[in-house]
Design goal:
Blueprint: E1 2-7, E2 13-19, E3 24-28, H1 39-45, E4 50-54, H2 71-85, E5 90-95, H3 97-108, E6 113-119, H4 127-140, H5 148-154, H6 159-174, H7 177-188, E7 205-210, H8 218-227, E8 231-236, H9 243-246, H10 248-259
Parallel strand pairs: 3-4, 3-5, 5-6, 6-7, 7-8
Antiparallel strand pairs: 1-2, 2-4
Domain AB hydrolase-1: 25-253
Organism: Acinetobacter pecorum
Keywords: Hydrolase
Length: 263
Amino acid sequence: MMSKTQQLSNNRIAHYFEQGTGEPLVLIHGVGMQAAAWYPQIEFFSKHYRVISVDMPGHGQSTKLADEAKLQDFVDWTIEFIAALNIGAVNLAGHSMGSLITTGVSVTRPDLVKRMAVLNGVYKRTPQARNAVIKRAEELKTGHIDVETPLQRWFGDSEIERIASDHVKSWLENVDLSGYTTAYSAFACGDEVYADEWSKIACPALVLTGTHDPNSTAEMAREMASLAKNGVAIVIENERHMVNLTAPDKVNNAMQKWLETNV
């Protein structure tokens, strides 16, 4: 992978990895992760596509946003980043918070999105679920990152899950606390920001999750896909929140079909 940076407004830097040539595929990770969190997809798709995996603001080597930044600010940042690449419309995929950003970009600037995919996305959480996420966001403001709880929630004991868990643990332990806190707060309050805009999405839309992801449920995935004009929902059995790492072959196959969908 080639490490690159893109200068954005207000002296902000967007860091990303780029590999391969062909039609562009832009990948946006979730809260606490970094661009490398798409490693199975980067390896697989860079054989035939120009894969661009970007560090979200305040993660990896990308400049963080203001402490009070909302989801819309992350969407605006991503729009600026894609436009600055000067490569036209892209295939845009996001995981977890990245899926909320992907949705926001797709409804705000459809001219920049050829196809869109959301992995383990959230859609209109229940009040109980929203309160739990908001509580975790508030806990982060005290300066404490709970690494073990999400690892236990996301991973089992298989070899592929152990390897993925080691990667994720390292990213969480090394994340910038301020950038992480800002992003998590935006994520906690962001599930409804673009939820009523799904009917505006006309490009091919893949919505994927796992049956064992209690926060990004199969019902959410099916609802989002049903609202998009060309939406497809895929629910992978027995998989949890980090499905792109724990079931890479199934995810890659689903994304390959999505990328081959006519626009």
